[in-house]
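Hi R.,

Here's the chain you asked about this morning:
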Amino acid sequence: MFIIKAIIFGIVEGITEWLPISSTGHLILLNEIMKLDVSDEFYSMFQVVIQLGAILAVVLLFWKKIFPFYKEKENIKINKNIVSLWGKIIVACVPAAIVGILFDEVFEKLFYNPVCVSLALIIFGVLFIVIENKNKKSKINSLEEITYNTALLIGIFQLIAAVFPGTSRSGATILGALMIGVSRTVAAEFTFFLAIPVMFGASLLKLFKFSFNFTGAELAILLTGMIVAFIVSMFVIRFLMNYIKRHDFKIFGYYRIILGVIVLLYFMV
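And here is the predicted structure, written out as tokens:
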């Protein structure tokens, strides 16, 4: 049964990590409906490290856009635009990295609860609808047009997600990017790339705190969840990139509001 549960958790993670609807909110609700039956320490680590599987899907799908080295005849050359992109990604990661390292456990104790997650789902759902209604024309339509100042502003929005679970890391960064004039496609891509160092760093931090002290069952649960999250993410990322070429993000805003109300009522009752 624990493998079946790990598969379900992996499916939910793979879907919700990339859609701006909060993987944390869904995993909290899922764990209430279908307990994973593990220690609190392991689950705290699991819900973060499972995201590594989803991140590997981004690395595979966008390899040509994020790997700066290429071969030309017999020489290895460097794509300066990709190097510049990584510089902007690092700048955008700085706010969340500093706060995450210093205050991760504090914020988890303060805000990792159903009420805070529900409110974050609802508030950012409303913001998605409002911003999309006002989002008429984009000023930034390619990754190369993102400046270091723009990257830092997007990173500050990501900081909100680091502090308040339920905000959705992808949701916060996409919303912030839309507010400062980044197109939907570029906002989504930059959010995907931003997740690579952020989630690798967060996962390593959690693994070190857990001391890599796994039982056989715990290791099986973690690896199963990561592999399933990777496979599902491959499909979800492709779906999202195709979807936003023709549609806006308002549907996700409505979904967040409905889910937030359901989670809030569930725990109140």
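One quick note: The mean pLDDT is 88.

Cheers,
M.
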